[in-house]
Write a structure and sequence with these properties.
Blueprint (H helix, E strand, L loop, with lengths): L3 E7 L2 H6 L3 H11 L7 E6 L8 H13 L2 E4 L2 H4 L3 H8 L5 E3 L7 H31 L12 H33 L4 H10 L12 H16 L1
Parallel strand pairs: 1-2, 1-3, 3-4
Helix pairs in contact: 5-6, 6-7, 7-8, 8-9
Length: about 220
Amino acid sequence: MPAYFAYYRVSTQKQGNSGLGLEAQQAAVRSFLQGAAPVGEYVEVESGKKNQRPQLLAAIAAARAAGGVLLIAKLDRLSRNAGFILALRDSGVNFACCDMPDANTLTVGLFAVIAQHERETISQRTKDALKAKKARGAQLGTPANLTEEVRLLGLAARQRNAREHGGIRQATALILARRAQGLSCERIAGELNALGFTARRGGGFSQKQVQRLLDRHSSAALS
């Protein structure tokens, strides 16, 4: 087994101190290594939008010196900047993602683009929603809207939405990217199933389900 150097990223100091998010990443690494411990572990407290990460650079240097592998629990923990992931991919440092154990350079590149597309889409939708709300005369940042109960309700809604629809959003982004490259719906369905995606009601993807997501995206773009 090669020497693995695990890299974990959490978005806030609170998450780093409490173990929130970090414990799940460590569990994914242990599962990937079948209970074995990585040679080194590096924890970064940093926003996913920033690419200057001393702990990541240290992990890369250690992996390169040992001829080892940089191990990340989830690809989006590395960065949601496509250029950053692609540059790392081409840097000569071997790296693996626990959630994509069979990934190759093609799939890593596709998912990098998907992750960035998703971040940019969410950001733009948030800006548009706030702009529309302000145009209706609503006061943004009203203290009454920031009670602990509302925060908890919002967190629960976001977590539920991520569980129910996160995979579908990523699947749709992958479908659009591969369709633009000229692949058939049947071929795309096969790739989705090979990558472990599940359809909205569970089970694998079929040609019809891929076409349905394409049609739904087209309808939403026209509305």
